[in-house]
Design brief:
The complex is a heterodimer of chains A (325) and B (323). Chain A is of the alpha/beta class. Helices cover 38% and strands 21% of the residues of chain A. In chain A, the strands form three sheets. A seven-stranded mixed beta sheet of chain A has the order 3-2-4-5-7-6-12, sandwiched between helices. In chain A, strands 9-11-10-13-14 form a five-stranded mixed beta sheet, sandwiched between helices. Chain A has a two-stranded antiparallel sheet with strand order 1-8. In chain A, helix 1 packs parallel to helix 7 and helix 3 (60-71) packs parallel to helix 4. By secondary structure, chain B is of the alpha/beta class. Chain B is built from 13 helices and seven strands. In chain B, the strands form two sheets. Chain B has a five-stranded parallel beta sheet, sandwiched between helices. In chain B, strands 4-5 form a two-stranded antiparallel ribbon. Chain B is globular and about 50 Å long. The chains are: A alpha/beta (325), B alpha/beta (323).
Chain lengths: 325, 323
């Protein structure tokens, strides 16, 4: 199978869906001639022009509000918020409007709207460009949240998001953009709410998503040499959440570690921990553990950043600690 | 005026329907038959009526927390509205929205809104959709003097202007953002002057003169339909009631009784009634007839609402996502 980058997979998904459905269009800051800041591929604009690949002013709240207005009057917008710290500027529209209008209005309208945003920070991007705010959006009923870790998943999930009649927050990790992986030429979509078991194992279940999946896999390889068989699950979507796959795996391993890049307190790991504590407590042989970033803003200096964000060594230590108790 | 008596009577009837609807709601709230928050439009009827009279059925509006008048003027069903205020299954939103979230997409009503100025970007998006779909619809976006101080106002007017979108921005300047007088919160006395910041057309009108509002809106609608972009119309009017029903004890801390009474003298309905009488379009008999019809329709609406069941509790879990 051919290999393409994560960012190419995103562009391909958008291109295919825009060709397939004339109601689909892209709007956001620097999406046109610049081809999106973290992707920098102006192919979409070259094919579809200013009208359907619409550069906007720096007006995040209105990018979302305008996209919402278009979505409830017959179009299927894909709004681009450059990176997730800028989602804070659009929270009014996302939380009060996008997530709620269908429900508040009695279920009579559809909101086919995708909000794409990047997250996680390039190295040395510091506190205002490195946030990982996915948990915020899982706390708001009415939003779906997708967060792929591979080019294959990015393309298949984005196509599903665009065809969904509900609002989807779609996160793309900035460090994954240049990474490559197999993506078939032929058409495919990936359903929401289906986690992907990246590695099978009997000793410990490790739940992760986005960039951290790759770090977890490396750590799992490292501890495999020591005889520890870790099962690694990539959630792919947080809302809806594939509870079944999580619980089934914990039933097999008896141990649960959750790894994410967002800071630990109030992170999505807490939700998974609560789920397993409520619905699978008797399956556990050892206490659930979480490994997220330390609870500080992401610092600039590489020494500090490495200290704060989970890496392969920290993950491996955590695994050893839990299995070799 | 003499040339179009039918339309004049319709304007009158719509304003009266809004007034009487609000009075009914006020009464039901006082008797706790309506439990939720109510922001009444009494005194401002000419704005929604004049603007919506300039629109077609397939045009859109976005509304505010004080939205009953907009909904009625755009053709909303008063029975479904009343049932929603009472939290019943038969209401516009099946009891999930209440007063601040009534919408009727078939009538182009993109929703009342509980967040000040939040309808502004949404109406801009509807206008963008119109432009991209290539129809000649327009959007009327209602907001208040308070809303004109938000970031959403600035972002929306800038984007609508730069993309030449068919929006009529209707600022209902009723003098107060809850308790804060416009003079204490707004950098300009005339909000329509903010048009110059966006290079768009705009004007101020007497918001208690339904014909003045209608004429200004008609001009703006024509511009919008012809691809000439948005207009900012400031309608100077006044809210007779408190910010919300039940505010009475606080009203005189931020405005005087005298001020309220002076504005009540400028009642948009009485004024228009007088003009219709002078133009011999509406005599006492005709007046009584309209009053009777409006009252009957609202009686039916209240009965419909009161006779309607509350939703089953588990209905709360339905309708969040489209299948």
């Amino acid at each position: 199978m051919r290999e393409i980058t994560f960012s190419s997979a995103i562009v391909e998904a958008l291109k295919e869906e825009m060709r397939r459905d004339h109601r689909v269009f892209v709007m956001g800051e620097d999406v046109g001639r610049f081809g999106m800041i973290y992707i920098a591929k102006p192919e979409l604009w070259k094919e579809f022009g200013d009208e359907r690949v619409r550069d906007t002013p720096i007006s995040e709240n209105s990018i979302i509000g305008f996209a919402l207005g278009a979505a409830i009057t017959g179009l299927r917008p894909v709004a681009d918020i450059m990176f997730c710290n800028l989602m804070t500027l659009a929270m009014e529209q996302i939380v009060n409007q996008v997530a709620k209008v269908r429900y508040m209005f009695g279920g009579k309208i559809k909101v086919p709207l995708v909000i794409r945003s990047s997250l996680g920070g390039l190295r040395l991007a510091a506190a205002q460009h490195s946030e990982h705010l996915e948990a915020w959006f899982t706390h708001v009923p009415g939003l779906k949240v997708a967060i792929p870790s591979t080019p294959y998943d990015a393309k298949g999930l984005l196509k599903t998001a665009i065809r969904d009649d509900n609002p989807v927050i779609f996160f793309e990790h900035q460090l994954l953009m240049p990474t490559s992986g197999p993506v078939p030429e032929e058409e495919y979509v990936i359903p929401f709410g289906k986690a992907d078991i990246k590695r099978e194992g009997r000793d410990i279940t490790i739940i992760s998503y986005a960039l951290m999946v790759h770090r977890v896999l490396k750590s799992a390889e490292a501890v495999a040499n020591e005889g520890i068989q870790a099962e690694v699950i990539d959630l792919r979507t947080l809302s809806p959440l594939d509870k079944e796959t999580i619980l089934k795996s914990v039933e097999k391993t008896g141990r649960l570690l959750i790894v994410h890049q967002s800071c630990t307190t109030g992170g999505f790991g807490a939700e998974i921990a609560a789920l397993v504590a409520e619905e699978g407590f008797e399956l556990l042989t050892t206490p659930i553990q979480r490994l997220g970033a330390l609870d500080v803003p992401v610092p600039y200096s590489p020494v500090l950043e490495d200290y704060v964000v989970p890496n392969e060594q920290k993950i491996a230590e955590k695994i050893r600690g839990m299995v070799n108790q | 005026m003499k040339g179009q008596p039918k339309m004049m009577l319709q304007l009158y009837r719509t304003m009266l329907m809004i007034r009487r609807f609000e009075e009914k709601a006020m009464d039901l709230k006082a008797r706790q038959i309506i439990a939720g928050l109510l922001h009444l439009y009494i005194g401002e009827e000419a704005v929604a009526t004049g603007v919506c009279a300039s629109l077609r059925k397939d045009d859109y509006i976005s509304s505010t927390h004080r939205g009953h008048g907009h909904c009625i003027a755009k053709g909303g069903d008063v029975s479904l509205m009343m049932a929603e205020l009472l939290g019943r299954q038969t209401g516009y939103c099946q009891g999930k929205g209440g007063s601040m979230h009534i919408a009727d997409i078939d009538l182009g009503i993109l929703g009342a809104n509980g967040i000040v100025a939040a309808g502004m970007p949404i109406s801009g998006g509807a206008a963008l959709s119109i432009k991209m779909r290539g129809t000649d619809q327009v959007v009327a976006c209602f907001f208040g003097d308070g809303g004109s101080n938000t970031g959403a106002f600035h972002e929306s007017l800038n984007m609508a202007a730069v993309w030449k979108l068919p929006v009529i921005y209707v600022c209902e300047n009723n003098g107060y953002a809850i308790s804060v007088a416009q003079s204490r919160a707004c950098s300009v006395r005339d909000i329509y002057l903010r048009k110059d910041a966006y290079g768009i057309q705009g004007c101020a009108v007497d918001g208690n003169d339904v014909l003045a509002v209608y004429e200004a809106a008609k001009e703006a609608v024509a511009r919008a339909r012809h691809g000439e972009g948005p207009t900012l119309i400031e309608c100077k009017t006044y809210r007779w009631r408190g910010h919300y029903e039940g505010e009475a004890d606080r009203t005189y801390t931020y405005r005087t009784k005298q001020e309220i009474e002076e504005w009540m003298e400028k009642c948009p309905i009485k004024r228009f009634q007088k003009r219709l009488a002078e133009a011999e379009i509406l005599d006492q008999k005709g007046l009584n007839q309209i009053e009777k019809e409006v009252q009957e329709e609202l009686e039916k609406a209240v009965q419909f609402a009161q006779n309607s069941p509350f939703p089953e509790p588990q209905e709360a879990l339905k309708g969040l996502y489209a299948e």
